[in-house]
Amino acid sequence: MLVPFERVIYCMIRNAATMEERNVNNIMTRWAGVLTTGMLLSVPLSALAQSAWKPEKNVEIVIGAGAGAAADRTARAVQKIIEDRKLVPVTSSVINKPGAGYSLSWIYLNQHPGDGHYLAITTLALLTNAITGVNPLTYTDVTPIAQLFTDYVVVAVRADSPLKTGRDLVERLKADPSALSIALAASLGNQNHIATALALKAGGVDVKKLKIVVLNSSAISVTTLLGGHVNAVAATVTNVLAQMQAGKLRVLAVSSPQRLTGELASIPTWKEQGYDAVFGNWRGVIGPKGISAAQVTYWEDVFAKVVATEEWKEAMAKNFWSDFYLNSRDSRRFLEQESRQLKALLTDLGLVK
To answer: Buried-most residue among 5, 39, 117, 190 (CB within 10 A)?
Structure first.
């Protein structure tokens, strides 16, 4: 047992040690604060701002086709959901920039490098234009944001046409590939061209000699057909549905793997008519070149919310779209793979320049 004097000495030593420990902890805490502040100051202010990026002005959704085209309907469906659900804090608008097989819209997009307030809707033309020599711009020149869906291509004729089936069309063009004119939008080598050429080639038609009329939108293609200026039209299904229901058009075949449902259930596939030709058309969203990772992340989140809404599911059913959602990273990988496959396919069809 400690005597009183020894106990006093012990307590003094213990208190001194405790005070020293506290001083050391205080010093370490202060230095940690200094180091943390220094690290924050060393980070560029632009990087800190990007981590919380969100649009601050009107967002433009650019499409390379005219009003009423499938891409136009896609953009307007997206815009309506974004605005009705208040998924972004600013206004948005759909901008039509038709021409050069969608290329004018993507050139316009890239006039705003690094600016996440500009988006565009894509089709296969983003890849096929470069492959066929229409325009060198391709998926590596923009920023993939998401893939949304895929749909299918039909060939239709006027209701008074002597052509009743897909086989009738094949046999007529097999005898003379240039005997009939086929209208499509919006560039050679795109989804409408490929889907139709695949079926005709499977039937023995020399597709290099086809008489193809390229117009700025499928809506214009249908109007041109109704006016008797071309013999047939190749377009995605929703572009011909209204005129088919009105009894003004007859749809000969669809490029889907099996018959579609609902109002299109009566349309036979190319495959069931004896031609091994299945081809789908996808649509996605891109931003201009040079946008930041934070901007990509922001729009990925927005489009993930869009495709999860009931309104989007209703639009999918109404337009006979098939779900094909991919995020930015997976979209880039898909486009890279698709580019290789399309180059081989277009080479086989004689469309590569």
So the answer is: 190
| Nearest-10 Cα torsion for 71, 72, 77, 80 | 140
Looking at residue 268, what DSSP letter applies? Answer: P
Q: What crossing angle do the helices spanning 328-348 and 191-202 adopt, rounded to 10°?
A: 40
DSSP string, 87-145: -SSS-EEEEE---TTTHHHHHHHTTSTT-TTEEEEE-THHHHHHHHTS-S--GGGSEEE
Identify the CA nearest to 138 among candidates 150, 151, 123, 116: 123
Angle, alpha carbons 171-175-179 (nearest 5°): 95
User: What digits encode the pLDDT tens for the residues 157-174?
Assistant: 999 999 999 999 999 999
Torsion 228-234-239-244 (CA) sign: positive
Q: Residue 243: name the closest of 153, 152, 156 by CA.
A: 156
Q: How many helices (H) and strands (E) does the chain have?
A: 12, 10
pTM for this model (two decimals): 0.77
The position carrying tokens 């006979």 is 320
Specify the 3-state DSSP secondary structure of 53. coil
| Domains delineated in the chain | 59-151+282-348 (3.40.190.150), 152-280 (3.40.190.10)
pLDDT in tens, 286-323: 999 999 999 999 999 999 999 999 999 999 999 999 99
Enter the tokens of residue 11: 């307590």
Neighbours of 128 (CB within 10 A): 29
Residue the block writes with tokens 């004119």 = 181
Q: In terms of Cα–Cα distance, which of 237, 220, 240, 238 is closest to 229?
A: 220
